[in-house]
Amino acid sequence: MLQTQISTSKPFSQTLPSSSLPAGRQCQGRLWSSLKDVCDLLRIPFASVCDDEDLLFQHVQFKAGQRVHTIGQNFDALYIVHSGFLKTVLIDEYGNEQVLSFPMKADILGVDGINSRLYSSEAVALSDCDLILLPFKKLTALARTHVELENAIYDVLSRELVREQAMVGMLGALSAEARVARFLVMLSDRFALMGYSSKFFNLRMTRHEIGSYLGLTLETVSRTLSAFNEIGMIAVNQRTIEIKDLEALKNLRRLPPSRNRAKQSKENKLAAMAYAVQ
Amino acid sequence: MLQTQISTSKPFSQTLPSSSLPAGRQCQGRLWSSLKDVCDLLRIPFASVCDDEDLLFQHVQFKAGQRVHTIGQNFDALYIVHSGFLKTVLIDEYGNEQVLSFPMKADILGVDGINSRLYSSEAVALSDCDLILLPFKKLTALARTHVELENAIYDVLSRELVREQAMVGMLGALSAEARVARFLVMLSDRFALMGYSSKFFNLRMTRHEIGSYLGLTLETVSRTLSAFNEIGMIAVNQRTIEIKDLEALKNLRRLPPSRNRAKQSKENKLAAMAYAVQ
DNA sequence: CGAGAGGTTGAATAAAGTCAACAAACGTGG
DNA sequence: CCACGTTTGTTGACTTTATTCAACCTCTCG
């Protein structure tokens, strides 16, 4: 029930004492974004020139460690990440966290709350964050007069689903090494998209959180990163990562479950090994 | 492009020779459902008394083994399962299938196609099926005049997402035994909902498909079912399942990744063991 | 400078996967 | 309708992978 938590000024701290701050929009922001800004952020075509000057969406800020929403809390808004890093988690019957995603710029939060009108996951800021608040009622009302927006909403929901499906595919079929490799590639791509270096970056989450996200223990994550470091695919030092051989990371699939014995499994294995061993 | 398929009369056959019939609505159906029927099926409130007499949706039939849609095929419709059993799969770079879901009555198919306008998964009939065809354009057009329908669409998409999230949680955090147990409980619940026996039913899929769905090998699935049989929680014979101790199945969670060492892990383990051992 | 959280590494263990042999059911064609 | 080949399911022996437990190290923050 109770969660630990102390929000500090530095990005890299999460677990804080419990029930200190209520989740939700404390620190009301000063910034506003137009509908067009929002669509641009989501990479969604927005053609219509309308009266959007007064269609503005408020920003909200969260400090590292703060919760944007908690499980069971009443749903009334989606959020788009304008800046910062977060994690979303499910909490099981024993209080164990299962990390579902690490939202960053342009990602959307809160979609899981639409259907039951209660958020079914918890979103926690891993660094100081600036989010755009999208009141759901307002959004759907707008969608009725702006067809592109209507489509955008459907698209975004579907996109989230496809993302989760890819995650299921990964958890169901890949080895620990392959999962960690994909995780690094994914981060690299995202950083590139945000205009940061895709070769050199800092992890925003702990080994424990990465492990939870990938269905592995923190030790396995640590060991795998060390192994990649060893063979020169990356250089890792604590949370600093340098990608040295992106192609190798991308090709490092491995097939631990025997989902593929029927086919060309021998060739695959050899090809994968070539990368894994060196 | 072309997909394989030869539908046979018996339910239990899938992988078939290639490039025979294109996926999609061969055998145009004779049945139609009203918007109200559809909403009822989805357990969605539908209050408005409107001109729905002519808002009819066509049914389509698929025989066991046929594909409803394939990966990369143009998206233009969702489907609701009216009767029958299916599987949806992702196919990786080596042609290995990853089962994503086993849709049955009242489930929706095709949502993953909305955003890219291409289906990103493949749906295969495991038995003869009767589906309701929902042309997406028609659906969204209708939603503009029927607010409940608009909400229904958002709800359904969100619901799918929550389902996938639960799946990720399961794959990321549960042992083989716990996954198989949950799978059985899930089936039991679904059969109950459809008015069938929740205690005695037939599996519609192979051990291989179950394994793929749960991120396990077919041998592990087989062994786990045998073990449950051994200790009397179920009786299993090939595809016939009898649930003998539903509560035990529901309580059989187990925590193989160390996602929980911080807390009351000892008590949990003991409680789980009590069930697992007997 | 000291405490505590986060990270690394090693050794032992446990869980699940692999390979292989066999058995049961199905469906096809003689 | 029965025999036979194919697909599906079961089980055992063994191997591999990842987890567990524990010690130690390293940063950061107060």
SSE layout and pairing:
Two copies of one chain form a homodimer.
Chain A: E1 28-34, H1 35-41, E2 56-62, E3 67-69, E4 77-83, E5 86-91, E6 97-101, E7 108-109, E8 122-125, E9 129-135, H2 136-145, H3 147-173, H4 176-193, E10 200-202, H5 207-214, H6 218-230, E11 234-237, E12 240-243, H7 246-251, H8 265-277
Antiparallel strand pairs in A: 1-2, 2-9, 3-8, 4-7, 4-9, 5-6, 5-8, 10-12, 11-12
Helix pairs in contact in A: 2-3, 5-6
Chain A binds a DNA duplex (30 and 30 nucleotides) through residues 8, 10, 12-13, 15, 175-176, 206-208, 216-220, 222-223, 225-226, 238-239, 256-258, 261.
Shape of chain A: globular
Beta strands of chain A, count: 12
Distance between the termini of chain A: 46 Å
DSSP helix fraction of chain A: 25-40%
CATH superfamily of the largest domain in chain A: Jelly Rolls
Assembly level: homodimer
- Beta content of chain A: 15-25%
Order of helices and strands of chain A: EHEEEEEEEEHHHEHHEEHH
Q: What fold name stands as the CATH topology of the largest domain in chain A?
A: Jelly Rolls
CATH top level label of the largest domain in chain A: Mainly Beta
**Tally of individual domains of chain A:** 2
Q: Strand order of the main beta sheet of chain A, please?
A: 1-2-9-4-7
Low-confidence stretches of chain A: 1-22, 258-278
Q: Which two chains touch over the largest interface? A: A-B, 57 and 57 residues
Biggest pleated sheet of chain A: 5 strands, antiparallel
Query: What is the annotated CATH architecture of the largest domain in chain A?
Result: Sandwich
Would you tell me the overall average pLDDT of chain A? 83
- H/I helix tally of chain A: 8
